[in-house]
Amino acid sequence: MRIALMVIRLIWAVPYYLTRMTWMGKHSSKEKTFAFVKHCVKMCNKKGRVKVIAHGLENLPEKDGFVLFPNHQGLYDVLSFLETCPRPFSFVFKKELKDVILLKQVINCTHSLCIDRDDLRQSLEVIKEMTERVKNGENFLIFAEGTRSKLGNRMQDMKGGSFKSAVKAKAPIVPCALIDCFKPFDEKSTKQLTAQVYYLKPMYYEEYKDMTTVEIAAEVRRRIEEVLFKFDAR
Fold it and tell me: Is the pTM above the cut of 0.85?
């Protein structure tokens, strides 16, 4: 219902947004392209009656080449980051989403990577490409739970393998806590609502270099759940 509301209230702009994003994804700098995508997302959120509040932006590393690791609540998660993150980033998405309208254009604009979880060789190639791009100063977003939790503001286990690229690139790992980001697209309502993104203090390579990826995953989950538990306790 909310997606329909966004489209209806922006019906005059949708063709322009899609055409412009397709063109910019091929011809413009990542900074200009990201800025336009951010503009489009902000308009969609405004017309869809969604307010996104960001906390802890000061925790983002000073230099690019970091990886965001949030909990995964639903399709809306990426939009919450596109509105609030001030730095361009790409994300890793499952192949089932590559042809979804609008998301497809955002994927192309942000030069994001499609992963086939049933194809080990392809998955390893994605890890390799992401590692090199992070080393070269690009930022990434990856959902280490693999699939959305479907448990509201509760998490599933994070998969250690999702952290391999960050470890190989020796990149800062930024845990992020999403709160109520499942509501915009999962609830059958168009009432005004608020979603929140908490950018937590990063884990730098010196901190996690002696940890296994499974241990890193557990620590990132622990930090995110601290925020989720505090929210639930209110």
Answer: yes
